[in-house]
Design goal:
- By secondary structure, the chain is of the alpha+beta class.
- 35% of the residues lie in helices and 25% in strands.
- The protein has one domain (5-185): Aminopeptidase, CATH 3.40.630.30.
- The protein has helices at residues 5-11, 26-37, 46-63, 99-102, 104-107, 127-141, 158-163, and strands at 13-16, 68-73, 76-84, 112-118, 146-152, 167-172, 179-185.
- Strands 1-2-3-4-5-7-6 form a seven-stranded mixed sheet, with helices on both faces.
- Strand 2 (68-73) and strand 3 form a beta hairpin.
- The longest helix is centred in the first third of the chain and has 18 residues, at 46-63.
- The chain is globular, with a radius of gyration of 16 Å.
């Protein structure tokens, strides 16, 4: 049964990973959303694929379960937000991502960061916005001043982030393409 994205967005329950009820096939559904949502579609082999997953998803599951949120619709994973409150420009475990050094002037004010992906069947129904709202609410409670993310400079997800209160902060020159840092202050 495929649910209408508008209806499923309203039915999604947002919880922290640490509070999530046991869910059969969670890892498979998570990986499916992660890899189908990623701009990177091909890998030289399983080792490269695993390293990519670890870099953009695994470290958050392992090190930040209190800042990892899932959207559940029944027994389906609709989406997730992988977040951290650790300033990545000043935290050794993110030193493998070169652009954080360039963003150090911004990450002090926007130390928290996130990666968000929603399954194709649930896009457009508010699931992603609800994940961001929950993360931002919990960040405020924790006293975190701001949150940022980095995406492709011409990525199709930029309008979504703008609608969710993020503003462009810095273009990051890259090869083969540029990225952009977006930030949101938390009142």
């Amino acid at each position: 049964m495929t649910e209408d994205p508008i209806d499923s967005g309203g039915k999604a329950t947002i919880v922290r990973l640490a509070e999530m009820p046991p869910m059969r096939y969670f890892a498979r559904q998570l990986d499916e959303i992660f890899f189908t949502s990623s701009a990177t579609k091909s890998f030289a082999g399983e080792e490269e694929r695993s390293a990519f997953r670890e870099r953009w998803l695994g470290r958050y599951l392992e090190d930040d379960p209190d800042w990892f949120y899932v959207a559940l619709v029944g027994d389906r994973l609709a989406g997730y937000l992988a977040g951290s409150i650790d300033d990545p420009a000043r935290t050794a475990r993110f030193s493998d991502i070169g652009y954080f050094e360039e963003l150090a002037g911004w990450t002090g004010q926007y130390p928290a960061h996130l990666h968000i992906n929603v399954g194709a069947a649930f896009r457009g129904g508010g699931v992603g916005s609800r994940l961001i709202d929950r993360f931002a609410s919990d960040l405020r409670i924790a006293g975190v001043e701001g949150v940022h993310l980095v995406t492709g400079r011409h990525s199709r997800n930029i309008p979504f982030y703008l609608r969710n209160g993020f503003t462009p902060l810095k273009v990051i020159k890259g090869d083969p393409s540029d990225s952009i840092m977006l930030g949101r202050l938390l009142d």
